Amino acid sequence: MAPGRPSRRTTQQPKSYRVDKAFEGLDIDLSDSEAEKEQGSGGSSDGAEEEESEVDEYTLADDDEEDDVDEFDDSAPTSNEEDGEDADVDMDEDVFGPGSDNEPGTTISTHKTPKFNRRSKGPHRKSDAVTKNKISGPKVQPPNRFNRGLGSDVRQRGVEEWVKGGQETRFKNFFGPTEEDYEPGLKSRDLWEKQLTLPSRSAGHLRRSFWVSDATLQKEMDTLRNWYEDTGQKYFEAGQTVNTLDEEPGQTYMFKDGPDSMNFLLGEIQKPQMHTMKRGNFLSTAQPFGPNPKRRGWSFNLGTRIQEVQWAPNEEGRTQYLAVAVEHKSTTARQYKSMRDPNPSVFTATPSFPASIQIWAFESVGKGDLDPSKPPRLEQVICTDWGAPKAFRWCPVALHDSVDSADENIVHLGLLAGIWSDGKVRVLDVKHRKSVQAAQYIHYSKAAFDIEIPETIPTCLQWLSSTTLAVATASGVLAIWTLTRPGVFPTSNPSDSRHFRSKPWFYKQITDTYILTLSSGYPSRPHFVSTTTVDGYDRIYDLRSPFFDSCASTRGRMLNFTQAWHEQTQSFLSPDEYHMLGHSPIRCYYRDIYAMRIVSSITCCATSPVHPCILVGGTDGMVAATNSTEKMMNTKCRPWQQPWFKHEWRRAVDELALKAEPAKSRVDGDEANGQPPAAGTPTDVATPAPNTDGSAEAPVTIPSAAILSQPLIRITEGYKAQKAGIAYPDDGTRRHKEGAKVITIFEEKTAITRVAWNPNLKFGTWAVAGTNSGYLRVEDLGD
After folding, report:
1. What is the Cα 265 distance to its own chain's centre?
2. Of 80, 129, 303, 316, most Cβ neighbours within 10 A?
3. DSSP string of 405-474?
4. Domain assignments of the chain as residue spans, ordered by start
5. Can you tell me the distance from the alpha carbon of 478 to that of 460, in angstroms, rounded to the nearest whole number?
6. How far apart, in Å, are the Cα atoms of 83 and each of 48, 88, 150?
7. Average pLDDT, the chain
8. Predicted confidence band at 585 (pLDDT cuts at 50, 70, 90)?
């Protein structure tokens, strides 16, 4: 170094320290050495050299040493021999409490700021004997300077860990910053944390959401009922044309294609039974398992794909009504092969043809249990000439406390909004006569609320409240009508009604592509709507400011055909291409919190307003349930999932790609001639063939030729619950080369198409699932 040239020392950022809560907001001197401090103060402080001996010196480790190592100078005196204002300041006991990083019994002198020394060569190296204290924990921010007591500087490291209170921060991020925002979420967790997969009626586990008050629900109910009694009923009576059909003409609106009967393999996995059901018949889910089973439900064979299932609102009645729509096709139009139709119905409106919606009635007993002793009955068939029903939703609020409370001779189910393949949206006021044994065929030729969106077709719809209906279209438009607004229904003047067109109060193009699903945050967040589109994005909109308050999720690589609002966690549910179901909270919509996973693509999911359990169906025919409330509150929790049942469809053996060699079997009676067994009677799956090798093993069962020559449906149940994980279960069934991607292709008719929970409070444990083969299952899953 040249003489006369001032020395230059490269300083580094001092080690990070934490500051105790008690000293937040004060200042700390960050000077590296005592020399710098004296330089900064100009040496004006008297007695500084005498006080220097009473300072505890902190030294920091070198880069090659371990982090978080502090060196305390034990040689420095720590007595309080000097009197006056410059004496040591007594520290609070909390500084060295359980939350502190300092050792108990250590006294920190506070006359001057401790010096930072680098463990390097030079005058700043501390060579005296020191005591090394290894302190574990994450790195923290540099401390602030603060003054305490007439200019005395104090440095404190005894602060709480930054991770303390992480759950509270999570609640605030998901639900809101105030206690009123996240307290309902905590109540939901405490009430339903013991329900791991399926709902229960015990201990008040069926109840409405904590996010909505009873006064809000009552106001919603009063708004609809007062409007209907004052003006709404008159609109529907004047604009809706209904007449009753006999059974013979009514049957023309029912599905007639497909096989007349289907073989079902039901019962225990080791001893299954063969049951044959005709189209439109049903069977108790308990029958294949012998006497006195703990199963309350019914299995149906409706013949073809289940298009839609929805429970009607009926809180106080003992009878529950289920609306079911199956796939309908025109009998007069030209039939194309799959993926060959030049004008598919998903993009263009179809010509009108007969179709129907079936309404089945189920009886209850006790406090809402499904009555297995009373078989279900087909109460009403809604017959229309508007094409196939593509989707429909019941109004979430019933017009009466009970469907038969207003008139003893009329069963009033409520308002049903639907989309038909002719490209129109209609709202029907559904009712029928009571005390009639046979099914009633009610033909609707005209609807009071009948709208057509120009230059596009509707794709999905959702009730935002008891009087507000939202409709999404193939062009990305969202339209919303409120039934109580003037100008929604045509006037009584016939000349005006001919050219009448109901105009929505909200009509915006919210996306540039096809909208697949539409969900609403009703009842607690009705102003939030979520959509899935063919571009791979899920989007949320606040209808109060739809263009500014919107958010998109991460882009998926597959089309998402299902979505649901989970009231208990204030989030929207949607699957992804990895076969996982994720939560998207309304305050963190861009992130997914995965709750469950199945081994195939998720085709449908359902939630309930009276409990947090979720139903999920996949292309492999599996229907599973889970409760993800705990997972939302704690990411380290692994939720349980419980398979309800599995549905497998097999085509005739002669049509299989891989053909097995026929085996000789011993058959008698009609089966020897290739005739199938009589419908409705259980039979053995196969005839035991005697062993010829002299072994002691049980004889091998061989299916008969009549069973092999027809399609077959196998239903398996009784699966045990397991914890859901991100990775696939290591069961040896998914072995493939490292780095290879495998997607299993299942039979089209094996897939689950629709699942739904009963939204009524006492009957919230009732569930329904529909399949692509026409198998429908209704069961009470509660205990």
Report:
1. 32
2. 303
3. SS-TTEEEEEEEEEEETTTEEEEEEEEEESS-SSPEEEEEEE-SEEE--TTS-EEEEEESSSSEEEEEET
4. 15-164, 226-255+302-331+347-651+716-780
5. 10
6. 15, 9, 14
7. 79
8. very high
Comparing CA positions, the residue from 280, 322, 170 lying closest to residue 779 is 322
pLDDT of 58 reads: 37
Which pairing describes strands 766-771 and 564-566: parallel, antiparallel, or unpaired?
unpaired
First to last CA, the chain: 88
**Angle formed at CA 263 by CA 261 and CA 264, multiple of 5 degrees:** 130
What pLDDT, on the 0 to 100 scale, is given for residue 77? 43
- 3-class secondary structure per residue, 67-125: CCEEEEECCCCCCCCCCCCCCCCCCCHHHHCCCCCCCCCCCCCCCCCCCEEECCCCCCC
**What are the Cα distances from residue 186, in Å, to 167, 190, 192, 193, 568?**
11, 6, 10, 10, 10
d(CA 471, CA 461): 4
Check residue 566 and give its pLDDT. Answer: 97
Write the CB contacts of 139 (distance below 8 Å, at least 6 apart in sequence): 16, 67, 68
pTM (2 decimals)? 0.76
226-255+302-331+347-651+716-780 fold:
Methylamine Dehydrogenase; Chain H (2.130.10)
Per the CB < 8 A criterion, the answer to whether 503 and 487 are in contact is yes
* 406 touches 412 (CB < 8 A): yes
Contact by Cβ (8 Å): 683, 628: no
Mean local confidence (pLDDT), 305-312: 97
pLDDT digits (tens, 9 = 90+) for 60-82: 334 444 444 344 344 444 444 44
For tokens 């500087």, the residue is 153
Question: Token pair 């063939």 is at which residue?
Answer: 689
Identify the weakest region by mean pLDDT among 172-181, 229-238, 336-345, 617-626: 336-345
Residues paired with 576 in a beta bridge? none
Report the DSSP pairing between strands 622-627 and 701-703. Answer: unpaired
Q: What is the pLDDT of residues 589-642, one digit of tens each?
A: 988 899 899 999 999 999 999 999 999 999 999 999 999 998 888 888 889 999
Cα–Cα dist 481/295, whole Å: 43
